[in-house]
Each structure stands twice: as structure tokens, then as C-alpha cells.
Amino acid sequence: MAGSVPLMIPPRKATSPSATTEAVWVKWLLIGCAILVLLWLIVLPLVIVITEALKRGWSVYAMALTDPDALSALKLTLWVALITVPLNTVFGVAAAWAITKFKFRGKGLFMTLIDLPFAVSPVIGGLVYVLVFGAQGWLGPWLSDHDIKIIFAVPGIILATLFITFPFVARELIPLMEDQGVQEEEAAVTLGAHGWQIFWKVTLPNIKWGLLYGIILCNARAMGEFGAVSVVSGHIRGETNTLPLHVEILYNEYQFSASFAVASLLLLLAMVTLLLKSWFSRQNDR
Fold first, then answer.
1. Measuring CA to CA, how many Å separate 184 from each of 92, 190, 191?
2. Measured over all CA atoms, what is the biggest interatomic distance in the chain, rounded to whole angstroms?
């Protein structure tokens, strides 16, 4: 009809498709199953450790922690961590910097070797050191002639822990530094900065939270390592027992309250590590 105004139909709003089409009860069933698994596998063991540690009272608990062998194991555990973590930090930063900032032949092989401790059982790693430095190993006779003791001594524990923990810092930094690229370093070069200046003024501030995150993970594994250390330590009371090995010895001797008391100390260290890890992760995300 002439002069008539056309009918305007408002456009329909686009609706975003739902992420899932399952019923609500399916969602809550899956959430409930996940919570039950966490309670069964994580929360319940932690409650048992604390309950058994305090089962015979605070006096027995304090006595177990102040026992000379427990104090020696704690001291050795801390010393091993204080030695291995800084060394692996230096290696991890150097390896990540070389892999992400430079091109060279064998980079893929280098990254594969960094991941090797993740693929090899810790017990196998300890056995390798026994075959190399043990009394019947490749270097055993030479070490014996020069009165150098590595296996069944503190140096062997340090070497085994270094092997198990050295990927953590590098593997935390490599993806972070690859994501950041090299633009800021190249800009610093054009402004006249040199190698160490670039590292301290540009690279390190950009990776500091990821670096601290990797150090925390490395430290946690160093203090809690059992398999490789068990092979090379010799289980000598007061000399080569770390906290995990001391817990095993107490449990095998049916000193259950004492073993759980020492285990609760490891649990406390793990909780502190977890809190620091979460905080550093949030800072890194920012």
C-alpha cells in the first residue's frame, strides 16, 4: 500500500551456546566424585598423619622431634637443600636463557636431557651413581686409593638430589621466557647494554616470579626425595639419613608415633611450600 510504513522486526539476540548439555545432576555428580577422591587420597592421609603423631601425647611428639637422630636427619635434609637448590637455580637460569635466547645445534637434545630425570625412576638414578662411584664402580678403586668417599656419604646424597631436582627451575622458566620473546633484550642491545646488564636489568625482572616458583618446587623435591637418596645413603643413623629415610626406619622398627611425628614435620614443610607456591603463582599470573 502506498505511503505505508514497512513493519520493522527487531533482530533476535544471538545466544551463546552452552558449554555443556548435560543435566544439572550430572554436574553435581562429577563435582561430588572429585571431592570424594580428594578427601580419600589427600585429606584423609593428612588427618591420619596428624592424628597418629599426637596419639600418645605432646610429650612423645616432642621427644620424637628432639631425638638426636631426628635432629641429625633434619640438619642433613636442610643442608642438602641449601646446596642443591642454588646450584640447580644457576643451572636452570643458564639453561633457560641459552634455549630461549639463542639458536644452536643440539637444542632439542639439550631439552631432552633436561627432562631425563622426569622419565627415569629415582631408584635407577641412584643405582647409576653407585655403578660410577661405588666401591666396585668405574671410579671406585681410584676414589678408594685417594680416600674419597661419595657413595654411603653426604656427597652421594647431594649428587643424587642434584640429578632428581635439576629440571624444575629450567622447566619453569623455559615456557615463560619463550612467551616473553627477545624484543626487550634486543631493544636493550640497541641502547648499548651488554650481556650482564641485559640479564640483571631486563631478563631477571621479567622472570623473577617464575624463578621463585621454580625454586620452591625444586626445594620441595629436594627435601622430600626418597628413592635415589635411599640407594646412595647407606641408611647410617646420624650421618646419612635424611628426614624421609628416618621416617622409614622408625616405621620399620614399629615406632609408629615417632615416625608419624617426623612425618608431620615433613608435612609442615610441604604445607609452607604449597602456600609459597600458590602465592608465587598468583604473582606470576599478574
1. 21, 10, 11
2. 114
**Which DSSP letter does residue 1 get?**
-
| Cα(214)–Cα(222) distance, integer angstroms | 12
Q: What is the pLDDT of residues 127-155, one digit of tens each?
A: 999 999 988 889 988 998 888 999 999 99
User: What is the average pLDDT across 96-106?
Assistant: 86
In angstroms, the CA 114 to CA 125 distance is 14
Whether 92 contacts 214, CB under 8 Å: yes
Cα angle: 240, vertex 242, 244; to 5 degrees: 135
Whether this model's pTM surpasses 0.70:
yes
List Cα–Cα distances, 50 to 36, 108, 209, 234, in angstroms.
20, 45, 32, 29
Instruction: Take residue 79 and report the three cell numbers written for it.
Output: 643442608
Which spans in 183-255 are helix H?
183-190, 195-198, 204-224, 227-233, 243-252
Per-residue pLDDT band at 245 (split at 50, 70, 90): very high
- DSSP symbols for 166-197: THHHHHHHHHHHHHH-SHHHHHHHHTT--HHH
- Is the confidence at residue 15, as pLDDT, over 60? no
* DSSP string covering 51-103: HHHTTT-HHHHHHHHSSHHHHHHHHHHHHHHHHHHHHHHHHHHHHHHHHHH--
